[in-house]
Design a protein that fits this description.
299 residues, alpha/beta, Rossmann fold, UDP-galactose 4-epimerase, domain 1, seven-stranded parallel β-sheet, four-stranded mixed β-sheet, 9 helices, 21% strand, globular
């Protein structure tokens, strides 16, 4: 548990970071840093007790940001398609943030399983080959994430800042996620793209689990930086869409294409050693997600 700490969360209005920000704000002084171009996002953060900081990490200026945070959780990511802007925001921005917050007890940098080179259904360890995994849909994403990891490893040693780099798989929960997008596609009768090499396997991580695990990840931060896969229950797109069909009566329609993301199952051995396993069974989490976001679709 984190209590009475001063915590910075970047990307606080996102599907992943918002539940964490809401939870931590109950017992801590929490600041949320993002571009915050919409006033309703600013109001939403204030409503849950998070102090908004309107900052573009690509710009280089952190003059408006306090430098006495005890913990930093960097969940911000931009995917504009511009390599110049996205590398500046995702990689250089992470480094500037680490330099600015170098007095923190720990820095959690949230990376992605999307940094790995596609390897079929094999579960990937932290030492497996990296590659431009998401180039078909997000041309800057994997490269920006790999660059940001490199910057954070440098920053950890340069500033003696305890750091952990967590390669997140598929987060989901009451606030949505990839399975919810698939549900909306099923409702609209749209084809769901899947890779021809089946099944398309991932590690679903419910928001209850990742919210509970963030303090443990921060406690595991070290110099040099620790890199760890971060995920939960093993499930395929085919599995969770079939279960969504059971819950709603909607039928998933799949389109097999090599442009779709392929399987990205993570080996969670190191994660389990550091912080323990996730606890929410994926079918329970999926049912809760539908109940929270689209209860009218439940049978």
């Amino acid at each position: 548990m984190l209590r009475n700490e001063k915590i910075l969360i970047t990307g606080p209005t996102s599907q992943v970071a918002l539940p964490l920000a809401r939870h931590l704000a109950k017992d801590n002084e929490v600041f949320g840093l993002a571009r915050l171009s919409r006033e309703e996002d600013v109001a939403g953060l204030r409503a849950i007790g998070v102090q908004p900081l309107r900052v573009d990490l690509a710009s280089g200026s952190l003059a408006a940001v306090p430098d006495d945070f005890t913990y930093v959780v960097n969940m911000a990511v931009v995917k504009t398609g511009s390599f110049t802007y996205d590398l500046a925001a995702n990689a250089e921005g992470a480094g500037r943030l680490a330099a600015h917050c170098r007095r923190a007890k720990a820095f959690l940098h949230v990376s992605s399983g999307g940094v790995y080179k596609y390897a079929g259904q094999r579960a990937l360890t932290e030492d497996d080959r990296l590659g431009d995994n998401h180039q078909a849909l997000f041309p800057t994403y994997s490269i920006s994430k790999i660059a940001a990891e490199t910057v954070m490893r440098f920053a950890a040693q340069q500033f003696e800042l305890p750091t952990i780099i967590a390669r997140l798989s598929v987060p989901y929960g009451d606030n949505g996620g990839w399975p919810f997008y698939h549900l909306m596609m099923m409702r609209g009768g749209a084809d769901i793209p899947i890779h021809p090499e089946q099944p398309n396997v991932y590690n679903l991580l419910h928001e209850d689990d990742y919210v509970a695990q963030v303090p443990k990840l921060l406690a595991a931060a070290r110099v040099p930086a620790v890199t760890v896969n971060w995920g939960g229950a093993v499930a395929s797109i085919e599995d969770w869409c079939a279960y969504l069909g059971e819950l709603t009566g909607l039928e998933p329609r799949f389109q097999r294409t090599s442009d779709a993301f392929g399987s990205l199952q993570l080996d969670l051995t190191r994660m389990h050693e550091l912080i323990g396993p996730a606890k929410v069974p994926w079918r329970d989490g999926i049912r809760r997600m539908v109940q929270a976001r689209a209860p009218e679709l439940l049978r």
